[in-house]
Amino acid sequence: MSKLEQLKKITTVVCDTGDINSIKKYEPTDATTNPSLIFQAAQEEQYQYLIDDAIRFGMHKTSHETQMLHQIMDKLFVNFGVEILKIVPGRVSTEVDARLSFDVEGSIHKATTLIGLYENAGIDRSRVLIKLASTWEGVQAAKVLEKEGIHCNMTLMFSLPQAIACAEAKATLISPFVGRIFDWYKASEKVEGYPPEKDPGVLSVSQIYNYYKKYGYETQVMGASFRNVDEILELAGCDLLTIAPKFLELLAQDEGSVSQKLSAQHAKSLEIEKMEVDESAFHFQLNDNAMAIEKLSEGIRKFAADTVKLEHHILDRVSAAKA
């Protein structure tokens, strides 16, 4: 039995890609996307029909360029999600524009728009996770959306205070980033790497997982953003892990044994102090964590930049369609 097959027995495996062929190959339960992954996929010839459909949709809705672009982008993200849901038995995650990371009402409006497009395509909202940045504003948006039956996946997470705020808001899922934490500490401490059990990203996700299970939060933990297979295996037993195709391939090819590293039962036995995270505590503790505040800000900038790249690509296609 491959390591991937063993991992699937103790953790829900999610494919982190916009490449539909990879999802077919590895048969994950769920799949996640983000603007960077959709931008990459949009360059592939095989997905041009999804772009063409989105452009037709937007051009039919309005002739106002800015409004048309928003319509096209929303439809494009949903088009990819609908195609993915034809393959996976579970859910797909679709991201709200990172430029709305500090806009509660804007995030809520965008999330409800995306869900409306999914429902118009015949997809039940229970199969969609709306990805929001784990800012204070993102948390407040998630609190409202969850009450409306719109399930949220809180991304760009790098610290326990972020995780606690999301759980208190009853977010469905969180995606703490392992690899980006690893990157920051590796650069900061000027080291080549870490043993898997001492990897700062692994330790962060383990801390969050144990806190959630200790205090009975229903919000699920999905480790994300991996730099190597060892990080993935060190989090075996986490509720979910979202894994890039290159690492799914390595796990599928390796037949060594996989042992469970995280368990709710073990977490309940740990002595962990309960924390109260209101708005002021959230901002202070996040600001006090140089890694977390830097990686959150950087992540928002990068996702926003890739969204802009995709928008430029779409506008070029719109101009060609009008010519």
The CATH class, by name, is: Alpha Beta
H-E string: HEHEHHHEHEHEHEHHEHEHHHH
CATH architecture verdict: Alpha-Beta Barrel
Number of domains: 1
Per CATH, the superfamily is Aldolase class I
Beta strand count: 8
- Indicate the percent of residues in helices: 55-70%
| Portion in beta strands | 5-15%
CATH topology term = TIM Barrel
Radius of gyration: 19 Å
Number of helical stretches of at least 4 residues = 15
Low-pLDDT parts are none
Biggest sheet, spatial arrangement of strands: 1-2-3-4-5-6-7-8
Please identify the structural class as seen in this structure: alpha/beta
- How can the largest sheet be summarized? 8 strands, parallel, barrel
Structure description:
With 323 residues, the protein is α/β, with parallel strands linked by helices. The protein contains 15 helices and 8 strands. Strands 1-2-3-4-5-6-7-8 form an 8-stranded parallel beta barrel, surrounded by 9 helices. The longest helix is centred in the last third of the chain and has 33 residues, at 290-322. It is globular. The N and C termini lie far apart (55 Å). The mean pLDDT is 96.
What are the key terms here?
323 residues; alpha/beta; TIM Barrel; 8-stranded parallel barrel; 57% helix; 11% strand
Question: How is this structure best summarized?
Answer:
By secondary structure, this protein is an alpha/beta fold. The protein is 57% helix and 11% strand. Helix 6 packs across helix 7, helix 8 packs parallel to helix 10 and helix 9 crosses helix 10.
Describe the secondary structure blueprint for this structure.
Elements (H helix, E strand, L loop, with lengths): L2 H8 L1 E5 L3 H7 L3 E3 L2 H8 L5 H14 L3 H21 L6 E4 L8 H17 L7 E6 L2 H12 L4 E6 L2 H9 L4 E4 L1 H12 L10 H15 L5 E4 L5 H6 L5 E4 L1 H9 L10 H5 L10 H9 L2 H33 L1
Parallel strand pairs: 1-2, 1-8, 2-3, 3-4, 4-5, 5-6, 6-7, 7-8
